[in-house]
Amino acid sequence: MKYIDPHVHMVSRTTDDYQRMALAGCIAITEPAFWAGFDRSSAQGFFDYYRQLTEYEPRRAALFGIQHFTWLCINPKEADDPGFAREVIALIPDFLKCDNVLGIGEIGLNKNTKNEKIILEEQIALAEKYNQLVLVHTPHLEDKRKGTRLIMDALSASKIDPGRILIDHVEEHTVAEVLDRGFWAGMTLYPDTKMTPQRATDVIEMYGSERIWMNSAGDWGCSDPLAVPKARIEMSRRGHHMSLIDKVTLDNPRTFLSQSEKFVLKAE
Amino acid sequence: MAETGFSCPQTREQVINMYFLEHRAKLLDVAAFLDRLDRARPTASNVDFREAALNEAVRILVDGQPQRAKRILDLLSDSTTEIPQSAHGMKGASGAVRGNSGGAS
Q: What's the gap in Å between the CA of B27 and the closest CA on chain A?
């Protein structure tokens, strides 16, 4: 069994988690830049974080035979101060040259504010300028549906092919609209605030397996870096064919991510 | 992108066999939570907007109509169109909408 976890924040996880993921069949992960649980006090804090994502974390993953790829941005939670956000964004182009950087992400909205939207649009423009893939964070709970629509409108105003954009953290009330507008959709398997493996399997049954993937988004909160293999077990015990299970947990991530020439799997 | 018909590979009996106990327990959790609320001293005259939203969501569970998860999520979603300038002073997401402005997609 092989799978890819295309959204997991390994900087917040222990080395034991890498080992457990490898034992469960994980061959590659992609790690978007995100909110560390506290607001950083300077752009230099992001510079160090980007170095961690591009230099240190790939080495730690490689100890367990897992390939590590990443996405860079200023996350929406810290993007509400446009002046500060622009200082951070200015750091990104140099890091885009790194071997494991696949694109811009996870950009999006948090509280659906004008300030966040300005910075979202500037980071979409950055992705467009440097021809990068885009990974999108959608807001939590009651803010998700409104935020997802605002984000899709901003993306549609750019020239980026929606097939090069993945909108993450979809749920039952947002998935259809995301897919209908041509974007890829990500389902985050998260114990409290997002989806369970059961509900994610329901979504596959209701909306199909095209342009959709699952991820753990494992981070510093209550989360599970083994959520993807647990979803595979859920699909299997319901009687889904292994080809479908592989499609949503291995083939689809590979198809989307391979649009970046940097995403080459050594295990194949 | 429409929901398809019998897209679950299991029969109804198989689904019940596999999931009944798990969801029986979850339903009891909700019932016990509502009982706990009844036993707790009120601190305001109005019903908390989250409690009201939960009571409304429970009605969706038993209305016999499809897409219950989507409709509950819609019910618990912000339906406003205003965009504030900044998040300064805002609280984190609460999971329901104050003033019951959540609803239709």
A: 16
